[in-house]
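Tokens in:
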């Protein structure tokens, strides 16, 4: 017989506790999300939640001088954000939460690329 991984056991225990403790106190509009295929009991919820740190880092970079920003890194953020936003609407279950975080990853990459381009334009123009 296959022995379950210890982390799987802990995961199932946490889900059962959540079902008994959290679910009963949820408002009616939130209850369907609790058991959704992309809800908080799945990786489809937690992966995008952690990915918001990329958006936070991009927003924190707004305080850095444009000459210290990496064009390659921000092209990568813009490209992956764009590609994965589209992909999120093609997969099943459609994951709007993941699409939203990827959209904001794309926007932060684009904002930084615009700052880099503006800095280089001003630098080369000699203003």
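Residues out:
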């Amino acid at each position: 017989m296959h022995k379950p991984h210890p982390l799987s056991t802990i995961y199932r225990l946490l889900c059962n506790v959540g079902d008994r403790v959290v679910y009963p106190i949820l408002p009616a509009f939130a209850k369907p999300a609790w058991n959704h295929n992309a809800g908080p009991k799945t990786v489809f919820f937690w992966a995008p939640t952690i990915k918001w740190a990329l958006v936070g880092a991009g927003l924190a970079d707004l305080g850095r001088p444009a000459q210290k920003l990496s064009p390659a890194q921000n092209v990568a953020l813009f490209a992956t954000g764009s590609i994965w936003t589209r992909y999120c609407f093609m997969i099943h279950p459609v994951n709007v939460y993941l699409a939203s975080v990827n959209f904001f990853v794309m926007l932060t990459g684009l904002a930084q690329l615009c700052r880099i381009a503006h800095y280089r334009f001003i630098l080369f123009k000699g203003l």
